[in-house]
């Protein structure tokens, strides 16, 4: 029952942010061509917000974020990827995916590492990103 309530609250949060995102025009960004302003690890992002460093990342910034998949779901016919937040298992990074990313998401499972690019909307208990795509950026290792 607690998991159902949590999923219901998550759906309401994502739905509210989608509505707000639509009102403020983040859908106008061509995410494939947009250059991210920041490249972050999910655990690092969550740790900054947990330390109440609210100025670490401003809303509406395009961010590339890498992390371990905690969950993939399709609540309300929207694909959403949750990335693990690190030591604090209650916090995560919620990435609402663009509809054209469904096929690529099928290649991933929980515990896989993924790199996503999206528009940062804010942090409540979790960090919220909208208009996300799977990042194809090559990393020189």
Q: How would you characterize the overall build of this protein?
A:
The protein is an alpha/beta fold. It has three helices and six strands; from the N terminus they run αβαβββαββ. Helix 2 links the parallel strand 1 and strand 2. The radius of gyration is 14 Å and the shape is globular.
Sheet with the most strands?
5 strands, mixed, barrel
Portion in helices: 10-25%
Q: Which structural class do the helices and strands define?
A: alpha/beta
Number of strands: 6
Q: What ranges have pLDDT less than 50 throughout 5 or more consecutive residues?
A: 18-26
Output the strand order for the largest sheet: 2-3-4-6-5
Ends: how far apart? 45 Å
What's the rounded overall pLDDT mean? 82
Give helix and strand order, one letter per element, not per position.
HEHEEEHEE
What is the alpha-carbon Rg in Å? 14 Å
Estimated share of beta-strand residues: 25-35%
Morphology:
globular
Count of individual helical segments: 3
């Amino acid at each position: 029952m607690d998991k159902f309530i949590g999923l219901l609250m998550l759906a309401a949060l994502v739905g509210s942010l989608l509505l707000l995102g639509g009102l403020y025009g983040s859908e106008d960004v061509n995410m494939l061509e947009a250059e991210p302003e920041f490249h972050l690890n999910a655990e690092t992002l969550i740790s900054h917000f947990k330390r109440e460093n609210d100025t670490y990342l401003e809303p509406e910034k395009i961010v590339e974020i890498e992390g371990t998949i905690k969950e993939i779901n399709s609540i309300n016919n929207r694909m959403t990827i949750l990335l693990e937040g690190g030591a604090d298992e209650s916090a995560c990074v919620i990435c609402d995916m663009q509809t054209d990313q469904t096929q690529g998401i099928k290649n991933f499972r929980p515990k896989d590492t993924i790199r996503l690019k999206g528009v940062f909307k804010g942090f409540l208990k979790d960090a919220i990103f909208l208009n996300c795509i799977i990042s194809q950026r090559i990393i020189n290792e």
